[in-house]
Amino acid sequence: MARSRIVFSLSLVLAIALVALVLGVVGGRATSSASQATGGGSGGAASGKKIDVVIKASDSSFWQTMIAGAKQAGGDFGIKVSTFGPTSETNIDQQVQLVENSISRGVDGLVIAPNSSSALNSAIDRARKAGLKVITVDSRVTTASEGFIGTDNLKAGMQAGKRMCELLKAQNKTSGSVMIESSVAGIQSLVDRDAGFKQGLALNCPQVKVTLQRFNNNDINTAASQVNDALTANPDLAGVFADNNTSGVGAARAIQDNNASETVPVVAFDSDPQENAALAAGTIDALVVQNPYFFGYQGVLAAGMATVNRIPPRDIDPGAVVADKKNMSEPDVKQLLNPPTMKAE
User: What kind and span of H or E run contains 267?
Assistant: First the structure.
């Protein structure tokens, strides 16, 4: 089998250039020791700067991977990184309060994975007015910031739609209906994924239609119940697209409970131990995998640059990779499926 290649976007090439530039700005020592992970590097203008990282949810391994990347960047470049997160992605008020806490603590910069495209705007505006430099990751906001790091979710969603079509064609299905199992309504990254999935599906399998969409409020049991109900009510359901890891785990449980792995393909987003197990077992057929470690690492570097009046790139996209049972053991894919994790403080 030919070894799969990860294709990097132009913005990722710019990000590599950013690392080289930041080496000159912060001058920290590269290390992975625990003592260095909170800012033990030395030298450089940004060394000693305080950066708070606010993730979407403390209960998710995806965001714990982002924390691991952020902490490693702090250790490598001498930046003091503290990490926080609400208990769930639906707890927007708690995330707003965490941003307010960072303003009160007088940190130099913020890296935020916002749970809403608009609900954090006022807090972000106050942070910037107070002199904090703000980098947003994963989901965009509709107010100003110093930069954004995240997957082009429309493009990644199109990858998912194309793969769904390929899976359906392998079963000699050229028409039918597909379900989207989504996490939270109104989150721009999910809206873009779903739109991209529809576009990719329509481009490659124009006779296959998305006829059903459900929102599970980021709850695995709800996702499983919704997919189970869809399978029961629609015996001819052709496939399921799950747009985050919670939705993917729930969909996989429903597929297993209904013995439908041979007839109803599932394409899901992200990775965690449960999704990876489902991929290996065949209850998920493909995962569109992002790089949250990069979000955290590069987010801290960009914020560090901004705190010393360097201008980070406005927009960095690390791209996404489609993982399946055939390539999940290949080194480039395996490291994305099994990244390091670290819990919020």
Answer: strand 266-269
Are 242 and 310 within one domain? no
Query: Please, what is the end-to-end C-alpha distance for the chain in angstroms?
Result: 43
Residue 89 DSSP class: T
Per-residue pLDDT tens for 58-70? 988 999 999 999 9
Pairing relation of β-strands 286-289 and 321-323? antiparallel
Contact 284, 268 (CB under 8 A): yes
Give me the CATH number covering residue 140. 3.40.50.2300
Measured distance CA(66)–CA(299) in Å, rounded? 9
Residue 305 lies in a domain: yes
Q: Verify that 232 and 285 share a domain, yes or no.
A: yes
Nearest to 312 by CA among 125, 108, 133, 130: 133
- Find, among 49, 54, 12, 14, the residue nearest to 28 by Cα: 49
Q: Where are the alpha helices (DSSP H) in 148-219?
A: 153-170, 188-204
Cβ neighbours of 228 (radius 10 Å): 18
The sign of the torsion formed by the CA atoms of 19, 136, 63, 230 equals negative
pLDDT (tens digit per residue) in 181-206: 999 998 889 999 999 999 999 999 99
Rounded CA separation 262/259 (Å): 8
Angle subtended at Cα 328 by Cα 327 and Cα 332, rounded to the nearest 5 degrees: 85
The predicted model scores a pTM of 0.85
Range of the domain at 200: 153-289
